[in-house]
Specification:
By secondary structure, the protein is of the alpha+beta class. It has 2 domains: 59 residues, SH3 type barrels, CATH 2.30.30; 110 residues, GMP Synthetase, Chain A, domain 3. Helices cover 17% and strands 31% of the residues. The protein contains 4 helices and 9 strands; from the N terminus they run E-E-E-E-E-E-H-H-E-E-H-E-H. Strands 1-4-5-6-2-3 form a 6-stranded antiparallel β-sheet, with no helix packed on it. Strands 7-8-9 form a 3-stranded mixed β-sheet. The radius of gyration is 17 Å and the shape is globular.
Protein backbone atom coordinates (compact mmCIF):
# COMPACT_ATOMS: atom_id res chain seq x y z
CA UNK A 1 0.00 0.00 0.00
CA UNK A 2 1.29 3.45 -0.85
CA UNK A 3 0.78 6.41 1.43
CA UNK A 4 -2.71 7.86 1.34
CA UNK A 5 -3.71 11.34 2.50
CA UNK A 6 -7.12 11.61 4.17
CA UNK A 7 -8.97 13.92 6.53
CA UNK A 8 -10.62 12.44 9.60
CA UNK A 9 -14.40 12.43 9.11
CA UNK A 10 -14.91 12.30 12.88
CA UNK A 11 -12.87 12.44 16.06
CA UNK A 12 -11.31 9.11 16.95
CA UNK A 13 -9.15 7.55 19.61
CA UNK A 14 -5.55 6.75 18.68
CA UNK A 15 -2.35 5.68 20.38
CA UNK A 16 0.63 8.01 19.99
CA UNK A 17 3.71 6.19 18.65
CA UNK A 18 6.16 5.40 20.25
CA UNK A 19 4.97 6.78 23.62
CA UNK A 20 1.82 4.66 23.86
CA UNK A 21 -0.29 7.57 25.09
CA UNK A 22 -3.99 7.38 24.21
CA UNK A 23 -5.19 10.57 22.52
CA UNK A 24 -8.22 11.76 20.60
CA UNK A 25 -7.53 12.94 17.06
CA UNK A 26 -9.98 15.75 16.21
CA UNK A 27 -12.44 15.62 13.33
CA UNK A 28 -10.97 17.29 10.23
CA UNK A 29 -7.36 16.44 11.10
CA UNK A 30 -5.35 15.76 7.93
CA UNK A 31 -3.44 12.46 8.21
CA UNK A 32 -1.35 10.26 5.97
CA UNK A 33 -2.00 6.52 6.25
CA UNK A 34 1.49 5.00 6.27
CA UNK A 35 0.61 1.41 7.17
CA UNK A 36 -2.58 -0.66 7.05
CA UNK A 37 -1.70 -4.11 8.34
CA UNK A 38 -3.43 -6.51 10.67
CA UNK A 39 -6.31 -4.86 12.49
CA UNK A 40 -4.97 -1.29 12.67
CA UNK A 41 -3.68 1.70 10.75
CA UNK A 42 -0.56 3.77 11.34
CA UNK A 43 -1.11 7.41 10.44
CA UNK A 44 1.12 10.43 10.37
CA UNK A 45 -0.56 13.62 11.53
CA UNK A 46 1.79 16.48 10.57
CA UNK A 47 -0.32 19.13 12.33
CA UNK A 48 -0.12 17.13 15.58
CA UNK A 49 3.54 16.24 15.19
CA UNK A 50 3.82 12.52 14.95
CA UNK A 51 2.68 9.00 14.29
CA UNK A 52 -0.48 7.44 15.69
CA UNK A 53 -2.07 3.98 15.64
CA UNK A 54 -5.77 3.92 14.81
CA UNK A 55 -7.66 0.72 15.64
CA UNK A 56 -9.84 -1.14 13.15
CA UNK A 57 -13.06 -0.05 14.93
CA UNK A 58 -12.23 3.54 13.92
CA UNK A 59 -11.48 2.73 10.26
CA UNK A 60 -14.56 4.70 9.19
CA UNK A 61 -12.97 7.92 10.53
CA UNK A 62 -10.24 7.33 7.91
CA UNK A 63 -12.79 6.69 5.17
CA UNK A 64 -12.14 2.95 5.31
CA UNK A 65 -14.51 0.07 5.88
CA UNK A 66 -13.97 -2.13 8.87
CA UNK A 67 -12.64 -5.22 7.13
CA UNK A 68 -11.11 -7.47 9.79
CA UNK A 69 -9.95 -9.92 7.14
CA UNK A 70 -10.41 -13.52 8.30
CA UNK A 71 -7.20 -15.50 8.39
CA UNK A 72 -6.99 -19.25 7.91
CA UNK A 73 -6.40 -19.63 11.66
CA UNK A 74 -9.59 -17.67 12.46
CA UNK A 75 -11.75 -19.62 10.02
CA UNK A 76 -10.36 -23.06 10.68
CA UNK A 77 -11.63 -25.46 13.24
CA UNK A 78 -9.05 -25.75 15.96
CA UNK A 79 -6.68 -28.68 15.57
CA UNK A 80 -6.92 -31.37 18.22
CA UNK A 81 -4.91 -30.66 20.26
CA UNK A 82 -4.22 -26.96 19.56
CA UNK A 83 -0.69 -26.54 18.23
CA UNK A 84 1.94 -23.83 18.50
CA UNK A 85 1.78 -23.44 14.71
CA UNK A 86 -1.94 -22.65 14.97
CA UNK A 87 -1.19 -19.89 17.51
CA UNK A 88 1.80 -18.52 15.58
CA UNK A 89 -0.30 -18.30 12.41
CA UNK A 90 -2.81 -16.12 14.27
CA UNK A 91 -0.01 -13.95 15.69
CA UNK A 92 1.15 -13.24 12.14
CA UNK A 93 -1.80 -10.81 12.00
CA UNK A 94 -0.28 -8.63 14.76
CA UNK A 95 2.11 -5.89 13.66
CA UNK A 96 4.48 -3.42 15.20
CA UNK A 97 2.94 -0.07 14.11
CA UNK A 98 6.30 1.29 12.97
CA UNK A 99 7.65 -1.75 11.13
CA UNK A 100 5.57 -3.46 8.42
CA UNK A 101 6.46 -6.97 9.61
CA UNK A 102 4.33 -9.17 11.86
CA UNK A 103 5.54 -9.90 15.39
CA UNK A 104 6.34 -13.54 14.62
CA UNK A 105 8.62 -12.74 11.67
CA UNK A 106 10.15 -9.83 13.59
CA UNK A 107 11.32 -12.42 16.13
CA UNK A 108 9.38 -10.88 19.00
CA UNK A 109 7.77 -14.14 20.19
CA UNK A 110 10.15 -15.80 22.64
CA UNK A 111 8.07 -18.50 24.30
CA UNK A 112 4.71 -20.06 23.65
CA UNK A 113 3.24 -22.55 26.13
CA UNK A 114 0.00 -24.52 25.70
CA UNK A 115 -1.86 -26.06 28.62
CA UNK A 116 -5.08 -28.09 28.38
CA UNK A 117 -7.96 -26.82 30.51
CA UNK A 118 -10.50 -29.10 32.22
CA UNK A 119 -13.25 -27.90 29.84
CA UNK A 120 -11.32 -29.18 26.80
CA UNK A 121 -10.09 -25.76 25.71
CA UNK A 122 -6.48 -24.58 25.87
CA UNK A 123 -4.71 -21.93 27.92
CA UNK A 124 -2.07 -20.13 25.85
CA UNK A 125 0.83 -18.30 27.53
CA UNK A 126 3.15 -16.16 25.43
CA UNK A 127 6.33 -14.34 26.32
CA UNK A 128 7.23 -11.70 23.79
CA UNK A 129 9.56 -8.75 23.57
CA UNK A 130 9.76 -5.48 21.68
CA UNK A 131 12.40 -4.03 19.40
CA UNK A 132 13.30 -1.40 22.03
CA UNK A 133 12.87 -1.43 25.82
CA UNK A 134 11.55 2.14 25.95
CA UNK A 135 8.76 1.50 23.43
CA UNK A 136 5.48 2.75 24.88
CA UNK A 137 3.58 0.66 22.35
CA UNK A 138 4.39 -2.55 24.26
CA UNK A 139 1.07 -2.75 26.12
CA UNK A 140 -0.90 -2.11 22.91
CA UNK A 141 1.02 -4.73 20.92
CA UNK A 142 0.67 -7.26 23.77
CA UNK A 143 -3.11 -6.57 23.95
CA UNK A 144 -3.36 -7.06 20.17
CA UNK A 145 -1.56 -10.40 20.48
CA UNK A 146 -3.75 -11.54 23.38
CA UNK A 147 -6.93 -10.49 21.56
CA UNK A 148 -5.83 -12.32 18.41
CA UNK A 149 -5.23 -15.53 20.40
CA UNK A 150 -8.50 -15.24 22.33
CA UNK A 151 -10.45 -15.10 19.04
CA UNK A 152 -9.29 -18.58 18.11
CA UNK A 153 -11.55 -21.59 18.33
CA UNK A 154 -10.44 -23.88 21.14
CA UNK A 155 -8.66 -21.20 23.18
CA UNK A 156 -10.16 -20.71 26.63
CA UNK A 157 -7.55 -18.37 28.13
CA UNK A 158 -4.64 -16.33 26.84
CA UNK A 159 -1.89 -14.49 28.67
CA UNK A 160 0.74 -12.39 26.89
CA UNK A 161 3.68 -11.00 28.84
CA UNK A 162 6.37 -8.61 27.59
CA UNK A 163 9.88 -9.69 28.66
CA UNK A 164 13.31 -8.22 27.97
CA UNK A 165 15.64 -11.19 28.27
CA UNK A 166 17.27 -11.81 25.94
CA UNK A 167 17.31 -8.34 24.37
CA UNK A 168 15.90 -8.30 20.85
CA UNK A 169 18.28 -7.72 17.94
CA UNK A 170 17.84 -7.74 14.14
CA UNK A 171 19.34 -11.24 13.88
CA UNK A 172 16.08 -12.53 15.41
CA UNK A 173 14.10 -11.53 12.32
CA UNK A 174 12.98 -14.60 10.35
CA UNK A 175 14.21 -15.18 6.79
CA UNK A 176 10.73 -14.16 5.55
CA UNK A 177 10.87 -10.95 7.60
CA UNK A 178 14.35 -10.13 6.31
CA UNK A 179 13.13 -10.70 2.76
CA UNK A 180 10.24 -8.26 3.36
CA UNK A 181 12.66 -5.68 4.72
CA UNK A 182 15.17 -6.23 1.93
CA UNK A 183 17.83 -7.51 4.36
CA UNK A 184 20.02 -10.37 3.15
Amino acid sequence: MGYEEVELSRACEAIQIPHGTVVTLPEGTPVVITQALGDSYTVQAPTLGGLFRVAEQDADALGKRRTLVPTPAKEATAPEPITEDYIREALREVYDPEIPINIVDLGLIYDLHLEPLPNGETRVSVQMTLTAPGCGMGPAIARDAQSQIERLSGVGEADVQVVWDPPWNPEMISPEGKKQLGIH
